[in-house]
Amino acid sequence: MLAKESKAKVYLDGRVIAEAKSGRAFAEEVRKNRRLGLISGEINVSYLKKLNEVHINADRGRARKPYIVVEGGQSKFTPELEQRLQSKEIDYNYLVRRGIIEYLDAEEEEDAFVALSSDQINQKTTHLEIDRASMLGLTMNCSVFPEYNSIGRHPISSNFAKQSQGLYAINFNKRYDPRAFIMYYPQVPIVNSMAYRALKIGSHPSGQNLVVALSTYYGYNMKDAVVLNRGAIDRGMGRSMSYKTYSDEERRYPGSQQDRFKVPPPTTESYLGEHAYSKLSEDGIVETETQVTEGDVLIGKVSPPRFLEEETSFGVGEEKSRDNSVTLKAGEEGIVDNVLLCETTSATKIAKVRIRTERIPEIGDKFASRHGQKGVVALIVDPNDMPRTKEGIVPDLLLNPLSLPSRMTFGHMLEMLGGKVGSIGAKQMDGTAFSTEGRALVDEYGALLENYGFDKFGDEDLYDGRTGEKIKAKIFTGVVYYNRLMHMVGLRLQVRSRGPVQILTHQPTEGKPRRGGLRFGEMERDTLVGHGASLLLKERMLDQSDKADVWVCRNCGDIGYYDYIKNQPTCQTCGQNELEKVEISYGFKLLLDEVKSLHVLPRIKINMG
Asked: What angle do CA 538, 543, 547 make, to 5 degrees?
């Protein structure tokens, strides 16, 4: 005799609200009422067979995806409805309201059996994909031929799309964003997708169409490195402008004191010197179109003292102030693009200064295609030395051919063919995901290229610009849409010989804004140990870091000090005067002091032999 089936618990947004005799039948009833419009279409329901639980989700923030409903092995989206939709007799919302299209969340998708196309529908099918490209997100749908790339490249290319420079806002000259990049000559991609056109992303382009050849160049473009044509850069390829905004406000303090925007007088505490304020106008704000470099004051500000001032000999308190100006950070320079003065609702005055800097592609800058093929500029070559076709066309970018098969980004190669066909025929090409078969696409592009007099597979004879000789192998050449990413060497360049150190450890500060040094860590130390470069190791870890001369007692091993009154070193622990000067790291001395705070007396034994 079979055991009686237990009742299924029903959860609404994670809370138990009821029990159902049959969980699966209850879930089907909820779906039926949702499709009839009796309950909200934003509710999702799923039955978990292993747990015998029904989960109903109605909370905010769920990612939901539309599907066509399939009942009895037949799609509810009939040819008649398709014709009415094309004639605009009905719209998409009509289909949603009538239960022909419904939205599923991640949990209800586990109950669905989805067919990719109408010819794959069977009796078990519950839903049909509206379009196979809908399984991808917005960013990937704006890419082209993503189905021919390795799946690991998809999140990488999505991140690159977010990092690319372009026209992020039409009113960029009215905005005061903390950091912004504007490309001078952005272009709409020759090969684009249906989502790209439907969402009109072409009004905010973020890249340029480059002539790319899959070729090495004397070993300079090894691995991910790329070689750029200087002639293309001079014509505006990849050229952009970076904006950075500095801001400050006149804060109010207790006791009716507040900050003031003005040129600080020489009597101000922490006065920077007359040269630092030379570019300020009378109101204490820098003038527009002024060339500024690191250390220049942009907003002159005077603040009240942190503590109450002492009385003078006449019994009258002297009014003191301290300099609290905003200066340009270390390693930066540019031109003052604009200045904004405004007030908050509480009548607090705010000043914003926007600095612009021209960013011309240089060695170390990062470029990437829409297929996750990133590359750092390794060399910029004069156009005379670049390889060229027999028609005299010089590639803008040379990409290492080994970077494509190793990463399996074959969509990159299809875009090269499609871009070549589109540029010659002066038309945009379609690269929507899952729209065509790869072999048919290659044959189609190949036939068009042959009509234009090119090789079917995009290969071309190139001539070496240095020697003038014909390169023996044919080079695959095409047009690819490349993004210039915001990771530029000009923003990351950090150089220091001497500079500020931390008060506690006497070691160099960290970070570019604090004029810090580059950390020489444990793994870098291991490389020098492996090479046996002991003197270089000593120079990096001691001489150029936190070298300190200390007096060590030969009797007790504790650290003493030099008594300048008696003109001799002294040990406080044992009172002896027999001390030796020893070079140690100040960080090690700090460690000894911290150990002493634990009531442990460490001793340094000096070997005089």
From this structure: 110
Other C-beta atoms closer than 10 Å to the C-beta of 243 total 21
Residues of each domain in the chain carrying CATH 3.90.1070.20:
8-136
CATH fold label, 494-543: DCoH-like (3.90.1800)
CATH number listed for the domain at residues 8-136 = 3.90.1070.20
430 is catalytic: no
Tokens of 413: 């190669």
Structure tokens at 10: 């029903």
At 99, list the tokens. Answer: 């239960």
- Structure tokens, 516: 């810090």
Question: What CATH topology corresponds to 241-266+275-305+319-359?
Answer: OB fold (Dihydrolipoamide Acetyltransferase, E2P) (2.40.50)
What pLDDT is recorded for position 159?
A: 93
Q: What is the pLDDT of residues 522-547, one digit of tens each?
A: 999 999 999 999 999 999 999 989 99
339-364 confidence digits (pLDDT tens): 999 998 888 899 999 999 999 999 99
Neighbouring CB atoms inside 10 A of 34's CB total: 19
Query: CA 112, CA 127: separation in Å to the nearest integer?
Result: 7
Among 91, 111, 177, 224, the one annotated catalytic? 224
108-163 residue pLDDT tens: 999 899 999 888 999 999 999 998 888 888 889 999 999 999 999 999 999 999 99
DSSP summary character for residue 265: P
